Design the sequence.
């Protein structure tokens, strides 16, 4: 494993993290509605989930999916259903008032981490991405140290990006804008997440 290969992987991961998806939508919505701490807790769950997929790719889980493709199909459908449910929940509660920021982050930190975790676990296409990237970049004889460094880098990139979103959209101006248009924005966010969930369901 060379430094150039690591930098290539880092560049790819930054682009993937920044690409639009349910994780980014939920981070923006959570930060604007519940504040920075809630957004950061959600970000932690999102980053942990990506690490789980990366470790699974290194461990060869993608080979299991090739041998038994119905497992991947089942996971994809379950994940899509979860995202559609999240989107529907956002839509259904669109007219509810803005929550108390301190209560949102203090009373349910584990719930926020779990939401982030399951949101990114719901997309098994991440496994295919990591399997392809690792096959193309990592040599077969890569050491355990290199593998650990790659996992750490992936976590750092994901966590940093979503925390950045959380910090930006939890500032007073974005929160005020969100509060003024909450019902419409929550319907928009809900519709986007449901559409992305439906897209994941497709092979």
Sequence:
């Amino acid at each position: 494993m060379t430094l150039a290969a690591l930098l290539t992987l880092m560049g790819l991961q930054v682009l993937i993290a920044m690409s639009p998806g349910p994780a980014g939508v939920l981070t923006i919505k959570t930060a604007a509605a519940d504040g920075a701490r809630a957004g950061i807790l959600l970000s932690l769950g999102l980053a942990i989930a990506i690490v789980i997929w990366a470790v699974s790719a290194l461990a060869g889980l993608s080979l299991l999916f090739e041998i038994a493709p119905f497992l991947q199909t089942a996971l994809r459908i379950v994940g899509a259903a979860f995202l559609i449910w999240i989107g529907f929940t956002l839509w259904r509660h669109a007219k509810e008032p803005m929550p108390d920021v301190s209560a949102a982050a203090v009373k349910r930190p584990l719930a926020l981490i779990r939401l982030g975790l399951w949101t990114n676990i719901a997309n098994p296409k991440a496994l295919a991405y990591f399997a392809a990237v690792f096959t193309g970049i990592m040599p077969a004889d890569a050491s355990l140290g290199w593998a650990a460094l790659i996992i750490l880098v992936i976590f750092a990139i994901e966590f940093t990006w979503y925390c950045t979103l959380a910090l930006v959209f939890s500032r007073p101006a974005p929160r005020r804008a969100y509060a003024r248009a909450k019902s419409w924005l929550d319907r928009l966010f809900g519709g986007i997440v449901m559409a992305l969930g439906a897209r994941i369901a497709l092979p």
